[in-house]
Write a structure and sequence with these properties.
The protein is an alpha/beta fold and 332 residues long. 18% of the residues lie in helices and 24% in strands. The strands form three sheets. A six-stranded mixed β-sheet has the order 10-11-9-12-13-14, sandwiched between helices. The longest helix has 17 residues. Its EC number is 3.6.5.-.
Length: 332
């Protein structure tokens, strides 16, 4: 189960207390109190595991260790270890205390979110020409405390969308090392699945149904993931009763949720094309052409159609390095 919205409380470690002590060595009876160690800070770091927020399901209050107190003989207390919390790439981390937001957009991105308190000074640092035997020392400073809301909004280069059971997971498995569950029934995919095709991140978004923007079926939970994809691969099953109507219904759900989704580059694929006659495929392609839409017949058991998809993905990967518009390079 993916946890995609959680509120947690973070408390960085307090600084250790400075020490007030004097040497007992004859002739060297000055102050020798060491400084306290710094408290541990808390960081967020991005990883590719979409389920990483699950760790916060029952772990809501998180504290870093405090610094060690100062010691005698000018020995400072040890600094506490920093605490790193791993969150999925695509997580928006909102500080509910300051209202500032941090977005984790890549693996390895590391952000300081709560700074540990500085250790207090020992009495050795308070000595002066007028105060050779200071008894002053400092308590450690408090570590920062914040409340954070973590919201996962998945980031992918290409999002696979369409009604349930149209072959999205099968294609993802074929193109990548992903092991998405595949079966011949509705809602096989209940969580988004990610796969890597060279430098591209492909996302298999659970199937939408009519009324998804109002919460029906798997609802808006996954529409927000589509919001963060850059290019849409829209799949329509060849065994559908009304192919263009299926296309329109999914587009309507995208529009109802956020019209900006309609502006994303989109490629339409007629999946499972091996299960219908060639004449029927030609008829479907012609129907889409009449609506000024191009639909590309594909099948995961047809190497030629898979090569078309790979060619398109290679072009998208190339364009990823530049701000140029992605051209449709798939031949009819």
């Amino acid at each position: 189960m993916i946890i995609d919205d959680v509120v947690i409380k973070l408390k960085a470690g307090d600084g250790g207390k400075g020490m007030a002590v004097f040497s007992r060595t004859k002739g060297l009876k000055g102050p020798t109190g060491g400084n306290g160690g710094n408290g541990g800070s808390i960081f967020f770091e991005g990883i590719s595991d979409l389920t990483a927020l699950r760790q916060f399901r029952f772990r809501k209050d998180i504290k870093a260790d405090r610094g060690e107190n100062g010691k005698s003989s000018l020995n400072d207390g040890h600094n506490a270890e920093d605490l790193t919390l791993f969150v999925p790439v695509g997580t928006v981390c909102k500080n509910l205390t300051t209202q500032k937001e941090i977005e984790i957009t890549k693996v390895g991105q590391r952000e300081l979110v709560a700074k540990g308190g500085r250790g207090g000074r020992g009495n050795f640092l308070f000595r002066s020409s007028t105060n050779t035997s200071p008894t002053q020392f400092e308590e450690g400073k408090d570590g920062q405390f914040f409340e954070f809301q973590l919201q996962l909004k998945m980031i992918a280069d290409v999002g696979f969308i369409g009604f349930p059971n149209v072959g999205k997971s099968s294609l993802l498995n074929e193109l990548t090392a992903s092991k998405s569950k595949v079966a011949n029934y509705t809602f096989t995919t209940l969580e988004p699945n990610l796969g890597a095709y060279y430098d591209l991140i492909l996302a298999d978004i659970p199937g939408l149904i009519e009324g998804a923007s109002l919460g029906k079926g798997l609802g808006i939970k996954f529409l927000k993931h589509i919001e963060r994809t850059k290019v849409l691969f829209h799949f329509i099953s060849a065994d559908s009763e009304n192919h263009f109507l299926d296309y329109q219904k999914v587009r309507q759900e995208l529009k109802a949720y956020n019209e900006v989704l309609l502006e994303k580059p989109e490629y339409i694929f007629l999946s499972k094309s091996d299960i219908v006659a060639k004449e029927k495929i030609a008829e479907i392609v012609d129907d889409f052409k009449k609506q000024n839409k191009e639909i590309i017949p594909i099948s995961i058991i047809d190497l030629a159609s898979l090569e078309k998809i790979k060619k398109l993905l290679n072009q998208i990967a190339k364009e990823k390095q530049t701000p140029l518009f992605i051209e449709n390079i798939v031949d009819n």
